Amino acid sequence: MSPKTQRSLRLSLSGGLSGFALAILTVILAFQFTLAAGYRILAILPHTGKSHFDFFEPLVKELALKGHSVTVLSHFPQKTRVANYTDVSLAGTVPVLELTVKQVEHLNPVADFHAIHTIGLQSCQPILSSKQVQDFIEKDQHFDVILTEVFTTDCFLGFVYRFNAPFVGLASSTLFSFSNDRFGNPANPAHIPNTFLPYGSRMTFTERLFNVLTNFYMSFARSYYYDSPAQWIAKKHFGRKMPSLEKIAKNTSLVLLNNHFSLSRPRPNVPAVIEVGGLHIRPAKKLPKDIEKFLNGAKDGVIVFSMGSMLQSRSLPERRLKAFLLAFAELPQRVLWKYENETLADQPPNVMISSWIPQRDVLEHPNVKLFITHGGMLGLSEAVFCGVPILGIPMFGDQPSNVQAAVEAGIGELFPYYRTPYMMSIVQAIRQILNNERYTENAKRLSAIYRDRPLPPLDTATYWVEYVARHGGAHLRSPTVDLSTAEYLLLDVAVFILAAVAALAFAFYKIYSNIEILPYLKMFLDKKSKKE
């Protein structure tokens, strides 16, 4: 129903309806108009890591709340019905990702890169060949905008080709070095470290060298080992006429990035890269009574310990587990530990375990003095938002880079997993932070900067999704996306200039070499000898 029709109907009925009835009718008409004006949005969230979905979920639910029709393909369907929100469940197609410490403790950056890309590639065929996804692909439907995760595989970009809609990339971490090309985003390795490396923005010569080599290798390896098979799988399910995944990816309207310059270091971004770090952080809620009682009674403060949603603390090797228990027993502070078993042998009296903790709400409590974390971006963002210092124990993925950023910001320290002697090292690292007010002061200052934005990150994200839907694309695509490497680095121009200079030098050489100077030289020498 158009706004003009609504106004006419209100005027024609106003004489015969009471004020209350008219108000009710107005609300109904406004609601109908909202639904009529709502966009059809498709969100492709195929990663099996719960933390990835936890970052995107507030956005898709907010879009549904605003009256848009949102369809979500994920492994984590809603447990209760959400208005305007339709699940296409991927549950059961591939296992949900839960990692043990043993699986990740020996990963170097290159092995880490291959591990997560293998997981991504191996999910393509089972998901795309599943009945629910095949039925969805075959269904005749239209979408105004598509949301896709920018991570380890592009095989799901076939949905963009199938439904022919502008699309927005979603990144739950900082951008991988090889992902910047699709947005034309500059990523100078002189000061922007590879996501898999534990480097800061001020790198030594050796670090810069290794950073460049790592970027080069990962770009090559992704293209050769993973993009080619993903292309084959996507064409199998979306048709042989589908263009290359690289070409589709380079038509991304914009990307919403779980990042904020206050934490992940300032860097030049093109307009199509929008920082919405902390998108998932909602207003604090009341704590469960047992946790609230534990926190309130901590006269010396509380330390929160969590290894995230994908990595299980219960999988820590026995000697590491005992080292943490002995270290915590030495402290006057209480420790709230996300531990997935119901019981913990030799648990000190100052330690409380819980298989799940409302981490964002807990970190807001005034008695929390330190957050021991694996360095995942979601938990780290929550710590920064709440102004809590961190002790980072990074294990895999972007965690080393995230923790190094926190160290560079002065809000925490890095604790290497293999440091020995382990128990006393843990105690010393904790005391170093708790006994130095500088960490807390820096954390509070960083929190103020992190929170100070023109719009909350969730509102920023919804605005840009609606912007793309309104205009059929964001029209922010950088021209550098279409340039070859030689053109982007001006290598062709440099070669031309060098060739021109060389040709000019050669021409001058030939000109001067052909001038007969010997007679003039002989005449000069004869005159000189006569004078003598």
Automatic annotation (TrEMBL):
PANTHER family: EG:EG0003.4 PROTEIN-RELATED, FI06409P-RELATED. GO terms for cellular component: endoplasmic reticulum; membrane. InterPro entries: UDP-glycosyltransferase, UDP_glucos_trans, UDP_glycos_trans_CS. Keywords: Endoplasmic reticulum, Glycoprotein, Glycosyltransferase, Membrane, Transferase, Transmembrane, Transmembrane helix. It is an enzyme of class 2 (transferase). One of its GO terms (molecular function) is glucuronosyltransferase activity. The chain crosses the membrane at residues 488-509. It catalyses: glucuronate acceptor + UDP-alpha-D-glucuronate = acceptor beta-D-glucuronoside + UDP + H(+). Pfam families: UDPGT. Its main location: membrane. It is found in: Endomembrane system; Endoplasmic reticulum; Membrane. Its EC number is 2.4.1.17. Belongs to the UDP-glycosyltransferase family. It is a single-pass type I membrane protein; Single-pass membrane protein. This is UDP-glucuronosyltransferase.
